Amino acid sequence: MSAASPTALPRWVDVVALPAVNLLAAFLLSGLVVVAIGEDPFQAMGLLVTGAFGNAESIGYTLYYATNFIFTGLAVAIAFHAGLFNIGGEGQAYIGGLGVGLVCLWLGDLPAVLVVPLAILTGAAFGAAWAAVPAYLQAYRGSHIVITTIMFNFIAASVMTYLMVNVLIRPSQQSPESREFATAATLPRLHEIADAVGLEITASPLNLAFLWALICAALFHVFLWRTRWGYEIRAVGANETAAIYAGISPARIIILAMAISGALAGFVALNELMGVHHRIILNFTGGYGFVGIAVALIGRNRPLGICLAALLFGALYQGGSELSFDMPNVTRELVVVIQGLVILFCGALENLFRGRIAAYFQRPATAGAVS
Fold first, then answer.
1. Which residues does residue 281 pair with via DSSP β-bridges, in sequence order?
2. Alpha carbon of 190 to those of 97, 195, 202, 211: distances in Å?
3. H runs (alpha helix) in 3-144
4. Phi/psi of residue 41, each to 5°?
5. For residue 137, what are the contacts with CB-CB under 8 A and spacing of at least 6?
């Protein structure tokens, strides 16, 4: 005797409805936290939204933060598709920044049309090389990728601290930062481009790295679903044993996926160093590598979803800063709690409401006896 299995859920339910319900639950619980400290949750939400999207400057800051999250979210996602949990994006972005900074410091006198592509390639190469070492240890020595990437985050921070304090520090100063990049080695900001064509836009850190992030998201889709290498990455991530029978080398794919992951993380430096700070500084990564894990989870490891999730976290970062300024009782730490609740419900508890939502969309199974 057998029974017909229930029909599959519509894809939009899993991709759209479930994340929306999880977000709603996170914001409802956040509202209760705001009530607990004696503030109006509706006012707080209004300030959060207007702080993120209320004017051109706020939107610029939101998209500036979102740029970093797109890079790190894509970095985590490509590793996920290969069955790997890369939590070393922070260190890979740091070392990628070293590569970008060295190009900008040593070759900044060249024309921008040469410096910018060289900086992109070098940042990707440095980030990829840093990620390739844990990948090799996983592929050929059996070291767990989670442990090695955590360790490499700390190693990267130590290496950068040593270089900034002892080697790359600008002469005659105490602050551990390099000299300023030449103009050709910086990325123009959106308001500067607008001024050049006669338009007036409020100043913000948003720069051309945002456009590169969107291009990377498009290339991510093409690579993963339209190329042989992308197919092999997904095959190894789905079933390593079956991939071996198909003639695919898991060791080669692990190194490939992690190298691409590190390269994507390294692009954070384009936004931070070339687009905003115009020098190498310590701690420019700002935790973006870790938040990228949540961005990839919420975005279901798909480029469009990652871009939307990055926009969400960009809004939380920017709107949270405005919220803590306009509503002093809602401290920056409480804003971090709200971000954590979003990560909790959309990441660790992403399937909490799946059964109840599925009940509304599944058709009753038709059972029948087969003699």
1. 177
2. 22, 9, 9, 10
3. 11-12, 18-36, 41-53, 56-81, 89-106, 112-141
4. -65, -30
5. 143, 148
Global pTM value: 0.91
Torsion sign over Cα 204, 205, 207, 211: negative
Between strands 2-3 and 367-368, the pairing is antiparallel
Provide the token pair at 322. Answer: 């405005």
Q: Which two tokens stand for residue 204?
A: 């913000």
Q: Residue 171 — φ and ψ, nearest 5°?
A: -60, 150
What single-letter DSSP state applies at residue 368?
E
pLDDT recorded at residue 324: 83
Cβ distance 104 to 115 under 8 Å? yes
| Amino acid code (one letter) for 49 | V
Q: Taking Cα atoms as reference points, which of 180, 168, 182, 189 lies closest to residue 110? A: 182
Cross-strand bridge partners of residue 368: 2
3-state SS of 129-182 is HHHHHHHHHHHHHCCCHHHHHHHHHHHHHHHHHHHHHHCCCCCCCCCCECCCCC
Give 9-34 pLDDT, tens digit per residue: 577 777 677 778 888 888 899 899 88
Name the packing angle between helices 303-326 and 288-298 (round to 10°): 120
Structural domain spans, the chain: 70-308
Report the SS3 class of residue 317.
Answer: helix
Q: Which of 277, 233, 308, 196 is nearest to 82 (CA)?
A: 233
Whole-Å CA distances, 208 to 60, 63, 74, 113, 205: 12, 11, 18, 14, 10
Can you give the pLDDT at residue 356?
75
Q: What percent of the chain has pLDDT over 90?
A: 68
The one-letter amino acid at 21: V
The alpha carbon dihedral of 203, 308, 283, 187 has a sign of negative
For the record, the structure tokens of 57 come out as: 């400057």
Torsion of the alpha carbons at 280, 336, 42 and 47, rounded to the nearest 10: -10
